């Protein structure tokens, strides 16, 4: 099932893991020492571009009875919402720009353009997800309490509807994130005290009223006779933003090779092991500068998980050093095109909708679920994880060839 001994799985000794951690610490210090005016310029230009796109989109929608202006306004608004959520909101609330000491661009004051209230997201994401990344039973982002993405979670009949649930989650992703930390189910079951649940529900309700009022009442009303056209434009822009955010996040967490861990890995976990868990539990996708920007630089999900509070514009350069460390310590660097990473994710979601008896691979050696026991049959021991995975792949290819010849 999930990995319980991360050093054993990675084919690294305690000394190797601590040396890796020390090198990653040194990399962080180098980047932090170099932060300065060019980073500030990048952020302020991003904010200016995002606001210009939103203003342009809103202005175009005053003429939204014309198809060309509806399309232009909707496109500009969609881009503005994506940039605000991905490159600004997500990253500012991670504390990536707190070193600037600007009270308007700070993790404690930023509120983003979506129904999820920032305090709720910071708790469920910054604290729980990034601290307990892919630890079964601790990190609720493993499937978002909606999808089964690992065999460590027992199959239930409701999983048969998982392909449909996945589509619904994609279209309503901002609502899924908003409800994630509320844990309404826990409040109903009594596992979350009402004195804790009610204040969170009030914050969520207030944010929802503001967000729905802005997008579906105020801005459409401002365009007068074009109310309906502006309303559909806002709905479309939110849908586009939701779908894009969903794809980016899922491609960073659920492709093949994004490993899961048992709570045993948290016992006496060292800083080096925490780094290693982030590297093995996440995945990247290949992107040029434009796609990287539109993804909030979360195409570098591995680097983001190693350094969640480093400015996103530095992750591309950090990735070069991380790949060198993967080469040095014989570790895999999980990246591919966004299409391949998403198709692998989609295969996992659809496959795990079925009961385990219909699945071919073992629960210790499957694309979406693996443990250190997957290497039991390898002899002699591989020098590192990447070499071990390569040997397993060769063995499978040989076995397939033998089956075809029979």
From TrEMBL:
InterPro entries membership: FA_desaturase_dom, Fatty_acid_desaturase
Domain annotation Fatty acid desaturase: ranges: 69-335
Signal peptide location: none
Domain of life: Bacteria
Gene Ontology CC: one annotated term: membrane
An annotated Gene Ontology molecular function: oxidoreductase activity, acting on paired donors, with oxidation of a pair of donors resulting in the reduction of molecular oxygen to two molecules of water
Biological process annotations from GO: lipid biosynthetic process
Transmembrane segments: none
Protein name per Swiss-Prot or TrEMBL: Acyl-CoA desaturase
Organism: Gordonia iterans
